[in-house]
Write a structure and sequence with these properties.
Length: 264
């Protein structure tokens, strides 16, 4: 009997790409899954698009109120029945072997979570590039991720018990909650990397973190100072500082340009 995988899809006004994302779950070669669709009080056609699929494995939940993304993630995970949990954002698409290539992970009890490479699709330029141009590592990968964070939430599959052992997503974050969660589990839990790109991630004008760069910087800054006494953080502090500095520049860049031309 194959392990049941609970696929978490959090949605808030995700109508533009939702149909393709849902189809990519349905087309999986690995057939023992359920989809937990958490509607965070959408006001667009997301519910209508979801209802157009009559799939017995699709389970719809409407949030009682609109919450932060990571509170919504936690609420959706509470509905999961599987021993394993996977995540897919409603503007991403899995390849049809996304889950079937994880069977080695399901069968090997040594590993606690699995991640894979992915393709980034830039809509404006209509270009596709490989997310990671280096070998992804197995095992305890905190130091590896500190230098180059290469995990995307839609590539991640975890054992459900990690949410009890490590803790769930921090609901105080709006952007870096995935990063914070993965860095926490990577300290003590064993990762299995899949080198193949198993999904497509769209980069478009409505990506939340691109539209909220100052929030991104402020959340990472708060995370940075919260980690000061952690030994894992200390030995990688220079890498995190470089990331903080980059985010600072990026968050201020639009304002700098605007002020520059005002002075002309």
């Amino acid at each position: 009997m194959k392990n049941l995988v609970s696929v978490i899809m959090n949605c808030y006004n995700g109508e533009e790409y939702l149909e393709n994302s849902l189809k990519s779950v349905i087309m999986q070669k690995y057939n023992n899954w359920e989809l937990i669709f958490w509607d965070n009080q959408s006001t667009d056609n997301s519910k209508k698009i979801f209802d157009s699929f009559s799939n017995k494995n699709f389970k719809y939940y409407l949030s009682e109120k609109h919450t932060s993304l990571y509170e919504a993630r936690n609420l959706a995970c509470e509905k999961a029945n599987g021993e394993y949990i996977a995540f897919i954002d409603c503007d991403d698409e899995w390849h049809n072997d996304f889950l079937s290539q994880r069977e080695i992970f399901f069968e090997n009890k040594f590993y606690d979570y699995s991640y894979s490479n992915s393709c980034l699709f830039f809509e404006k330029s209509n270009k596709k590039i490989l997310h990671a141009n280096k070998k992804l590592l197995n095992g305890l990968i905190y130091d590896f991720l500190a230098k180059d964070y290469l995990v995307t939430i839609s590539s991640l599959v975890i054992k459900k018990k990690l949410l009890e052992e490590i803790g769930s997503f921090n609901p105080d974050y709006n952007i870096i909650g995935d990063f914070d969660f993965v860095m926490r589990i990577s300290k003590t839990k064993q990762a299995l990397a899949i080198q193949n790109p198993l999904l497509l991630i769209r980069i478009h004008g409505n990506n939340f973190h691109d539209k909220n760069r100052k929030m991104f910087f402020n959340e990472f800054k708060n995370w940075y100072f919260d980690q000061i006494k952690d030994s894992f953080f200390t030995r990688n502090k220079k890498f995190f500082f470089k990331k903080l500095a980059r985010l600072f520049v990026v968050s201020l860049f639009p304002t700098f340009i605007k002020d520059f031309f005002k002075k002309k």
